[in-house]
Write a structure and sequence with these properties.
40% of the residues lie in helices and 22% in strands. The chain is α/β, with parallel strands linked by helices and 391 residues long.
């Protein structure tokens, strides 16, 4: 494994420089005046922040081809050189690891999937290390150094400590994953909850660009929610902000693995849907794909299960809208494969439960394969590289 001596430091670490760089990263190319306006900084502060970034090659300045008045100095555009650095992102599921090699603009250059041979931390780290080595070899072909590794894991993750407190799918408790991965893979490692990591990617590079307040709701093996409030990804005092999967929507509903009853996740997550379809129809569907197929064939019982799931998701989203008033809620996750089966119920339940102007929230879907979740992990590594404050 390569040593961390391969990794260089970002040339500036002042708040202003980080703010300008992230502004250009998300919104660029921009003129310096536009960057100053978006970042809320003075032109002088922008000039000071930009200079070392240009000298180090992280920013490039290009002539603006747009027509300009005859008088006055033409304004050049500043943009991020995406090829200046590379990052690796890993998304760990219960069955496999999805890895991507991404550039500084978080564009995926290489993607790989490898199965897990077991879920114990040591086994997962061994597979992760092999995948990281493979992606480092790919990076050599680009002639650019990999500056960081991001790992996204479901469950209760303390990003500041780099610890997975509890991951139900992996059955992990108190695993110091960042420390272990740094030692094993030889790269500075950022570990975060997978939904929060995906939210970072959407905030900086996706459907959340330019929005100070939005939510990302993921539907699939679990029900997750990432929150951006006043431009900051919210983790909360204890790192579990956004757990709408454990909002109770039916006190008399099925038991949830968290110990309560009628949680959104207990009704609308894939395992819950499979269990309910088996119970309602008497058909032993093997997995969620068979449950979807049965519902698509018109089985009334299976379709009723999906309708109930859609209602639970809609009410959960309305809770987010009522509490935080986001401009947009993005629905994603592998569960979108069944979206046509419960889209109407999600919309109806959201409209009925959203209070007042909260119902004006833009709710739309965005299918994102697991490679995009790994890209989210890479986005957290980019965050850690360019700023001491991940928000």
């Amino acid at each position: 494994m390569p040593s961390t001596s391969r990794v260089e430091a970002f040339p500036v670490n002042t708040p202003a420089a980080s703010q300008i760089f992230t502004t250009v990263l998300s919104h660029g190319p921009l003129t310096r005046l536009e960057a100053a306006r978006r970042a809320g900084l003075s032109p002088a502060a922008v000039t000071k922040a930009v200079r070392p970034l240009l000298e180090a090659g992280y920013l490039l300045e290009d002539a603006n081809d747009e027509p300009r008045p005859a008088l006055g100095r033409p304004a050049n555009l500043v943009r991020v050189d995406g090829g200046r650095a590379l990052f690796i992102g890993l998304k760990v599921t219960g069955d496999e690891i999805i890895g991507v090699l991404a550039d500084l603009c978080c564009r995926i250059r290489v993607a790989r999937r490898v199965p897990l041979r077991g879920r114990e931390p040591g086994r997962v780290l061994a597979v992760a290390a092999e995948l990281v080595q493979e992606l480092l070899t790919e990076a050599d072909g680009f002639g650019v150094r990999v500056q960081g590794l991001g790992i996204a894991v479901s469950g209760d993750v303390d990003r500041a400590e780099g610890t997975v407190r509890y991951s139900p799918f992996l059955e992990w408790r108190d695993v110091p994953l960042a420390e272990l991965a740094t030692m094993t893979c030889g790269l500075p490692t950022t570990v975060d909850n997978d939904v929060r990591a995906l939210t970072v990617a959407e905030q900086w590079f996706g459907d959340g660009v330019g929005l100070s307040d939005f939510a990302l709701v993921t539907v699939g093996a679990g029900i997750g929610c990432g929150l951006v409030v006043h431009g900051r990804v919210v983790a909360g005092a204890h790192g579990v902000a956004g757990e709408i999967g454990h909002v109770t929507v039916d006190p008399a509903g099925p038991p949830c693995h968290c110990g309560n009853r009628g949680c959104v996740e207990a009704i609308a997550a894939d395992p819950a849907i499979v269990a309910q379809v088996r119970e309602v129809t008497g058909i032993e569907v093997a997995d969620i794909a068979e449950a979807i197929e049965l519902a698509h064939r018109g089985d009334a019982g299976a379709r009723a299960v999906y309708a109930k799931a859609g209602e639970a998701i809609g009410r959960g989203i309305a809770t987010v809208a009522n509490l935080l008033g986001p401009a947009r809620v993005i629905i994603s996750g592998e569960g979108l494969a069944a979206y046509d089966l419960f889209a109407e119920q999600i919309r109806d339940a959201f409209t009925a439960a959203a209070f007042g102007s909260a119902a004006r929230c833009d709710v739309h879907t965005r299918p994102l394969p697991f490679e995009e979740w790994a890209r989210g992990a890479a986005a957290t590594a980019i965050q850690s590289f360019i700023t001491a404050d991940p928000n």
